[in-house]
Specification:
The complex is a heterodimer. Helices cover 33% and strands 28% of the residues of chain A. Chain A has seven helices and ten strands. Chain A has a six-stranded mixed beta sheet with strand order 6-7-8-3-9-10, sandwiched between helices. In chain A, strands 2-1-4-5 form a four-stranded antiparallel beta sheet. In chain A, strand 4 (60-65) and strand 5 (68-70) form a beta hairpin. In chain A, helix 3 (96-106) crosses helix 4 (111-124). The radius of gyration of chain A is 18 Å and the shape is globular. Chain A starts with a strand and ends with a helix. Chain B has one domain (4-222). Helix content of chain B is 86%, strand content 0%. Chain B starts with a helix and ends with a helix. The mean pLDDT of chain B is 89. The chains are: A alpha/beta, B mainly alpha. The A-B interface holds A 50, 53-57, 71, 75-76, 78-79, 81, 83, 85, 87-94, 98, 102-103, 105-108, 134, 150 and B 4, 7-8, 10-12, 15, 18-20, 22-23, 82-84, 86-94, 224-225.
């Protein structure tokens, strides 16, 4: 079973100064799972995602991604991870095409393959006709779409999504669901944080609920998310 | 330039140059500040020719260092505020490649300002600064303090008081550059024998190499949250 295991977290804690944000989390995620991470604002969702992608260092505990330990083997871990964060993480004075070309160069994607993946992704996120537009002229939703293309560009094994529906209109949300389903079907492991309980992708394997830095639920999603969330946080 | 390291450095430099070409906010602010500094000094120090030769190298380097403070801060603030620094850190690129890429961008912007200042100061102060040795001194000095400036600006942008922190942190560590670069430039401008000022230029090059190596070693610690 360990060969199928992608994420292994043991007794993970994170403090900001004296303030504990995550308190001794344990978590196992298998390859190909689609995991929904729920929690109120300040419950530690974003901090957990930042720790998993190596942008933040744990106060204590163990994180292994694909068998590599963080932070010791961070460079190998980073090559496997795509992150869609709160902020778009794009360069406003570059065009959509230039942004993707820049990140493709940093992920060392071969030039011919780079152009193919970039053009496909721009098409998939609905920005093919704005490929040469500067990002500073994009709406929040368009930036979010381009940011998703950036996160998928290197075909990561693990996709971390922090409130991905932010700024997207209905068409954008549908496009996102479609892309996530395709990524999941191709074997990509996905962890998606959200506090928008009224919206969830079609296929979710598991839900985790964080409350005050502790895991209060880890299991199947039966019924609607709002009921699950209420039940999990009430029993915490 | 075919290794992933070199390709990453090249990608970061060309990204910074392209973004600056579009916005022109960094170099124009630095150049304007440097020009105003030189003009203010020229009015404040109404000196005879000998005194000008004494003062001009100090005016050049102080103006350049102050202007570069603006540039370094802005360059890293843009990365930090747009969140693109996180995007850079997420890639499997070594921290040294990120440092070298940012350093080369900052170096080019500051050198461009210096290349505007040299003829302007030659005209304003009536002292010959358009000299190959003066240019070499400028290149070496600017590269050195761009290295330490890039490191400290990366540190400063992660704090709330970044505008205040960068000058407080950078100016003391720039003193070795200031001292050696001013001495070398002064010797060159005054027409002193090469043997008198060459040692200052060599010292400036040595300090630049030491700072560069230290910055390369320390940069990954600066980036850790």
């Amino acid at each position: 079973m360990s060969g199928r295991r992608l994420i292994e977290v043991q007794r993970l804690s994170k403090n900001f100064g004296w303030l504990p944000v995550l308190r001794g989390l344990d978590l196992l995620v298998q390859r190909g799972e689609f995991v929904l991470l729920l929690g109120a604002n300040g419950s530690g969702k974003s901090t957990l995602l930042r720790l998993l992608c190596g942008l933040s260092r744990a106060t204590s505990g163990v994180i292994r991604i694909g068998g590599w330990s963080l932070p010791e083997e961070a460079q190998a871990v980073r090559a496997q991870i795509g992150l869609l964060a709160h902020r778009p993480l794009l360069y406003e004075n570059l065009t959509a095409r230039e942004n993707l070309d820049f990140f493709a160069a940093l992920y060392d994607i071969a030039a011919a393959e780079r152009a193919r993946r970039r053009d496909n992704l721009l098409q998939q996120v609905g920005l093919a006709d704005r490929a040469d537009g500067l990002v500073r002229g994009f709406s929040r939703g368009m930036q979010q779409r381009l940011s998703l293309a950036r996160a998928l560009l290197h075909q990561p094994d693990l996709l971390l999504l922090d409130e991905p529906y932010t700024g997207l209109d209905n068409a954008g949300c549908a496009m996102l669901d479609e892309l996530l389903t395709a990524a999941s079907n191709s074997g990509c492991t996905i962890i998606m944080s959200t506090h928008q309980l009224e919206r969830k992708p079609a296929h979710i394997d598991r839900a985790l609920v964080l409350a005050d830095g502790s895991m209060v639920y880890d299991g199947q999603v039966n019924g609607d998310l709002a009921a699950l969330f209420r039940q999990a946080t009430a029993s915490a | 330039m075919k290794s992933p390291f070199a390709a990453a450095v090249r990608a970061i430099v060309s990204k910074d140059l392209r973004a600056e070409w579009r916005s022109r906010e960094l170099v124009s602010a630095m150049a304007l500040f440097a020009l105003l500094s030189v003009l203010v000094f020229s009015f404040a120090l109404e000196l005879d020719k000998n005194a000008r030769e004494e003062a001009i190298s100090g005016v050049l380097w102080v103006s350049l260092i102050f202007a570069s403070l603006l540039g370094f801060n802005r360059s890293l603030s843009l990365e930090h505020d747009q969140g693109s620094l996180d995007a850079l850190l997420l890639t499997p690129v070594s921290r040294s490649a990120i440092f070298l890429g940012k350093l080369l961008g900052n170096f080019m912007f500051t050198l461009l300002v210096a290349l505007v200042l040299l003829p302007l100061m030659t005209a304003l102060y009536g002292v010959q600064l358009l000299d190959s040795w003066a240019l070499l001194t400028t290149i070496v000095g600017v590269f050195g303090f761009s290295a330490i400036g890039t490191l400290l600006a990366t540190l400063a942008v992660q704090t709330r008081s970044r505008e205040a922190l960068l000058p407080i942190a950078l100016l003391p560590v720039c003193l070795p550059f200031l001292l050696t670069a001013v001495r070398a430039t002064k010797g060159i401008v005054s027409g002193a024998p090469q043997s008198e000022w060459q040692v200052w230029l060599q010292l400036l090059a040595a300090i630049t190499i030491i700072y560069l190596v230290l910055c390369l070693l320390l940069y990954r610690f600066v980036l850790e949250e």
